Structure formats: C-alpha cells, structure tokens
Amino acid sequence: MAYLMFEKAALEASNVKTGKFCQAGNHPIELWSPSLISQKVEYIHMNPVAAGLVLEAHFWKFSSANDYSGGK
Asked: Which of 13, 14, 60, 65 is deepest in the core (most CB within 10 A)?
C-alpha cells in the first residue's frame, strides 16, 4: 500500500519518475527542548494514523512508534 502512495506522488511530481518518498523542500527547525522533540516524534508517529493507513501508530510497519511503546 505504501508503495502505491509513492507511485501516486511521483506521478504528481514533474521531477520524479518512479517513486517519491519525501515532500519537496525542507524547513529545518531547531529542536531545542525535550518537549519539542516529543511533539515532533508524536507528529511523525501519528502520520499513518491520520492518513487512515492504521488504527494505531505502532501498527505501521515502518514506524519507530513500536519502539516507543515498549515493543520490538
């Protein structure tokens, strides 16, 4: 399923032919506090849930959420 998302994104991008993994551009931010780091990690973990790909973050195969929830 994830592969299909990359293919769809590549079709919408003029500079990518086979699969697009990241959004265009970057916007670096300084992670200056433990609470800000936690906020960003939570946001990343919740992306597959928000996209409707899984019901819980730790179910996403490619996520580190399982590590944070005590799994392996």
From this structure: 65
